[in-house]
Amino acid sequence: MKNKEEFIEIQAVLDAFEIIGGKWKFPIIYSLCQSKKRYNELQTDLNGISPRSLANALKELEMNGLIKRDAFATVPVTVEYSLTKYGKELKPVLLSIQEWGKKHRKKIIDEIKNESKG
Amino acid sequence: MKNKEEFIEIQAVLDAFEIIGGKWKFPIIYSLCQSKKRYNELQTDLNGISPRSLANALKELEMNGLIKRDAFATVPVTVEYSLTKYGKELKPVLLSIQEWGKKHRKKIIDEIKNESKG
DNA sequence: CCGGATCCGCTTAGATACTG
DNA sequence: CAGTATCTAAGCGGATCCGG
């Protein structure tokens, strides 16, 4: 580390990961970017997340003020999760990750094609 | 999930996290964004990462073509890690995370101030 | 039935000590 | 200096169960 400024910069990244680290936080937020979702919709979107992990992640995200949980006393219960205004500030981050993910996917596919070509 | 397109989008995020998920990958890449670094410099930058976790993360990042490892037969050995061209494509992602991290830090500090004000 | 909580086992991450 | 070995702690997933 060279100086105090650089320390703060990397500390910002580390801090961000205290909140949005873990395997599922980003995908959850990404899913909620599109629209508010119910518990089961999230579970489907996230393609096989366990209920335990989903519940934990949602609780932490709510504690940190990134998402909002609304429960309606219907029968059966309806619970909706949505991004808070603060959570929406993560959108640019999400979009850049997703863009990189698409590029990466393309790269992998190209590599496989080249291998089979010989 | 509503349609196939949305599935691909979220899948891109999931895929990205296969590569750059985990607690330390982003901070490592962030640190290497600035300049190439030696093993111990990274350990210092990352403020307390264990050697094991650092070694593991570096190995995975190298396997995925994001970073490059150069060893020089000096005594003692010198090893330098740097971003590959492909790894550098993550810079925009890093910058947006870091920006959010700074915002978040400011928010937390403000909240603490307001609490102590009463 | 929906939204979780709980129990269990496996995999990943971390602390510390030690080595080429 | 740049890691590995070992042990322990935390996180994740699967199945099952419970309250409304």
UniProtKB/TrEMBL annotation, chains A, B:
It comes from Flagellimonas yonaguniensis. This is Helix-turn-helix domain-containing protein. It comes from the Bacteria. InterPro entries: HTH_HxlR, WH-like_DNA-bd_sf, WH_DNA-bd_sf. Residues 11-109 form the HTH hxlR-type domain. Coiled coil: none annotated. Keywords: DNA-binding, Transcription, Transcription regulation. It holds the Pfam family HxlR.
